[in-house]
Fold this protein.
Amino acid sequence: MYPDTPIFAYPEYQKYAKVGEVDFTNGSREEFIMIQTMLIMMGVGLFAGIAGAILGLGGGIIITPVLTLMMGLDIKYAIGASIIAVIATSSGSTIAYLKDEVLNLRVAMFLEIATTIGGIAGALLTGVLDPKYLYLLFGALLVFSGWNMWRKLRRGQEALNNVKADPIATKLKLNGSYFDKAEFKRVDYQVEQVPQGFLVMLGAGLASGMLGIGSGAFKVTAMDTFMKMPLKPSSATSNLMMGVTAAASATVYFFNGSILPNIAVPLALGILVGAVIGSRIMQVLPARVIRMIFIPVILFIGLQMLYKGIIGG
Amino acid sequence: MDNQSHQNSATENEMDHIEVIIGRILQIGVVVAAIIMLFGLILLLVHDGNGGYPVGHQPTTISAIAAGTVALKPYAVMMVGMFCLILTPVLRVVVSIYAFYKEHDTLYVWITTTVLIILCISFIIGHTV
């Protein structure tokens, strides 16, 4: 036996040594990486949950880049995790919202018809419709929405109170009220341009079904920009709707193995906690402040979509 | 005007009532999902990060998840927790139908039922396409 020949070179030791190696080095290293990943996922989730619940967005814009760029995860698994994230944000924030009645359940259910039909159309039209035009169209819509929000911010008017209420909104009982914890008063508001809002939601369902993004941004746009709902109920209602829309596609990802439990579970737990905290923060934040955070975010998503449309998706 | 404000407050009380029912059931649903996920995560930690399946694999069929859960395999339990989480929005729609029915709001019983039917259709399409 030559002293400087590694013990692994001997066939009879090879098997044994390998087993030992896995048990010792890989075992503890894997465990370290696992705990590290778990903590990162929980932290990212907590942040995404807080932000998502305040803005009424799914949190995909935070989660997808973190998972793909930072963690090097395949886009397929990143999308799977994002879908779970959307549902966690939605459910986490609505368990707080429903008790605090910011959300407009009738608007949510009425518009949900449009998003789900749009979602089906999107799934069926994949491959038929060039996503390039959708990116351009909806990117432009979000930029327009951002500009519109900027005008709303400068005007400073949140709730719409016309002398004559919109007949369709009245018939569908969509007008509502909520208690604003920042202003310490009940805000009554009216909804208008119901057909336009419904149409935008139809398109939003189609686009987010086909492109897999912007589920929350389009919803807030339809309610805030087109139907003239105040931002807080828009955000809360968007949060409720996102979860319902995502649930249908989530089962597909669940059964085809795109949702990795070791990634998605700590992420979801972090988000649930974050979303409960976020919805509490949202209620006491002045609507103006939420709008100020919202405008750059929506402009960023819109410009990103326009860019994708121009370079060809 | 009086009549209208009276009507408004009636709708408001109605909504309050619906929201409390839905809120409670949803809270229970979400908490149950979170507890199962947390339990799975603790199992994973106890098993030193071994999910109970070969590396890169996880159970994806109902039977495999059920069998794994009975055997207390971490990944299987975590999948059950996530499935419960996915069901919470569907639960919300179902409960809303019941709540609108209790409030005698026929229009919204229909609207919400339509949402549920479309959800079922998209579920079927998603699993066949």
In short: Chain B touches chain A through 59 residues (CB under 8 Å). The longest helix of chain B spans residues 2-46. Chain B has one domain: 2-128.
